[in-house]
Amino acid sequence: MQRFADPTASAAVASCRHQYASACYTPQQLRVAYDIEPLLDRRTDGRGQTVVLMEFANTPQPPAPQQPIVVTDMRQDLALFDAVFGLPAPRLQVNTSLAGSAWPWLAGLEEVEDAEIVHAVAPDAAIRVILIPSWTGPGSWITAVDSVLRLALAQGSVVSLSAILGEDCFTPAQVAGLNSALQADQVHHVTVVASSGDFGAASTACAGPGIPTSVKEVGLPASDPLVLAAGGTTLDADPATGAYHSETAWHTPPGTANPQTSGGGFSHLFPRPAYQDGVAGIGAARGVPDVASDAAGRTGMTLAVSAGARKDFFYPGAGTSAATPLWAALIALADQYAGRHLGFVNPAIYRIGRSASYHQAFHDITTGNSTLELPQGTITGYRAAPGWDPVTGWGSPNAQALIPLLARYTSP
User: Fold this and answer.
1) Alpha-carbon distance 99 to 208, whole Å?
2) What share of the chain is helix, strand, coil (3-state, %, to 5)?
3) Concatenated DSSP letters for 319-361?
4) Model's pTM, two decimal places?
5) Is the distance from CB of 47 to CB of 126 less than 8 angstroms?
6) How many helices (H) and strands (E) does the chain have?
7) For the ranges 98-102, 115-119, 262-266, 294-298, which has the lowest average pLDDT?
8) H/E/C letters for each residue in 116-134?
9) Alpha-carbon distance 294 to 29, whole Å?
10) Residue 230: DSSP 8-state
């Protein structure tokens, strides 16, 4: 792997592209593609807002020869990211009250991705990481999610949740507890954004995030109607300027060892919410996702990890866990623009989707599908289509048009 002691942006991107055969967009190019840059130019940059990230606590790991680095110091990672791409120092805090972590700044690559994407899109927003205990099962995990959602009432205005498990992993009491916590966030005008998953129409296994099953099912927290569910796309933008060209539904290429695609489908726990009434393609059940953005590793934004002297490395963001913090950061921009916390934005998102402004506010993703071919069999998914679909929702953002509309259509 190519290393740089003091890399420039071009060197960082070149290293990322060489190692991962990815577009490795810079933060500025991603912001140009999604029309975020004009907002930042007018100082709609997230100042005064706080995005909450839920992350697993980490412990130190001894270096192993020829093994990838999996735990780093997030302060150093963000310092490198900012130095390379010309971003201001982040306002970063870590809450260890749930995990009791003695190493609050140690971060896995998922946490690095979440923090750097939020910082790229809303560079002056505060980032508050709430650490949860290491994985021990779906019951303890959903309890931790509940606790994070309740802590967020006093911690920030937007919550980003990148992990997902199949709906069948939880008891009715656990589902009700999650919904109760989300209702409290709704009352206090906290927006909750969650990943729709990386396995198309297939469920995410109860054994832990990142494992698909042959069950056709959506997952929590994304399927709860009080959550803004984020799906994934493959972004094609100008490699020099970031100018938007096109997008398709995210799907790893045929023959990929670990196939992935934008998660979505229909809940068997929640009926169709009122904001989805009359939307073509949605029946009697809650449809997922609501929105989408870039999730393909081969078109991801360049992320930075600082692993010690002359050991910096750069890799592309990937998965709907990359789309989720991007949308959380966009809501932080919208909160600043509106001068208030917008909170539960789903009704406004769907109002915009039904309006004459839809194609100004969103890129409508109409190509691609979410069928997943697994060793245990093919899980037939859905196809992207004009308007809302259970692969990319309403599509990806045209932020300069979308954010004023969100402010206008979200009730105080």
Assistant:
1) 18
2) 35, 25, 40
3) SHHHHHHHHHHHHHHHHHHHTS-----HHHHHHHHHSTTHHHH
4) 0.96
5) no
6) 11, 22
7) 98-102
8) HHHHHHCCCCEEEEEEECC
9) 12
10) E
Is the pLDDT reported for residue 22 higher than 70? yes
Residue 60's pLDDT is 83
Quick one: which of 390, 353, 349 has its CA closest to 368?
390
Instruction: Please give the Cα distance from 47 to 20 (Å, whole number).
Output: 33
pLDDT in tens, 258-285: 899 999 999 999 999 999 999 999 999 9
Task: Kindly report each contact of residues 334-337 with a partner whose C-beta sits within 8 Å and lies 24 or more positions away, as own/partner.
Answer: 334/402, 334/403, 334/406, 334/407, 335/49, 335/157, 335/158, 335/191, 336/44, 336/45, 336/46, 336/47, 336/48, 336/49, 337/39, 337/44, 337/403, 337/404, 337/407
Res 2 pLDDT > 70: no
For the stretch 28-67, pLDDT in tens is 999 999 999 999 999 999 999 999 999 999 988 766 655 5
The residues that bridge with 372 in the sheet, in sequence order, are: 379
Amino acid at 177: G
Average pLDDT on 229-242 reads: 96
